[in-house]
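As a warm-up, study this chain.
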Amino acid sequence: MKLHVINTGFFKLDGGAMFGVVPKSIWQKSNVPDENNLCTWAMRCLLIEEGNRLILIDNGIGNKQDAKFFSHYYLHGEDSLVKSLNKAGFSEKDVTDMFLTHLHFDHCGGGVKYAGEKLELVFPNATYWSNTEHWQWATQPNPREKASFIKENILPMQESGHLKFVKDRELPFDIFYASGHTDKMMIPKIEYKGKTICYMADLLPSTGHIPLPYVMGYDTRPLITMEEKERFLNEAADKEYVLFLEHDSVNECCTVKRTEKGVRLDRVFSLGEL
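Now compare it with the structure written out below.
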């Protein structure tokens, strides 16, 4: 197995929304905001090369929304999904499996594009993976999350016949299901070089979110998020998991450790250092 980091660029979100009830005087120490209270976040994906399969986990925000939509998120940086795939030695046609942790626009928007006025899959030879419960949640959205579930990002997967729901061991990794952020978000746990690499998606957006009360305002069930984080991070500390951070603008990976104040950050490093 080989793992490749796929950087798709940066965007900005309100710092208060990203840290919920935590005061700005505290969270700004780890995530410095700009003059508009916006913090920079990565959209860092992971490519798994395993046998004859090429599995991409998440795909960023894409580029098919209108200028008004993108004006809210301040996309920036030199990286893009296609450029990063090419840098790793692959093209969109090489991807065999497109695994989506969940269907919020910054995680799945890069999987569908416009060809003229028609929507088509970016990865024409790939199976697009979701799960039954989350698909229903995303396609029949609640008012709180409706703006995050964009039908142009989602429905073409099913209409193309490429959508499949995860069952048992169809992919070469275990999955932790978390329902605090959104219903049945999937956290892959990948065995690699004697370590367990956990793709943290929005269960742990950054190292700044490790303390239990540091929960995003975007989470639909924040108390459940806290329970899931506590269980997961305790296990991560005990078993020395490597946490791969999708949204941390500085750190690719980290480990955590138990302390008298609870689980806290241990080390930060790049995936290539393993």
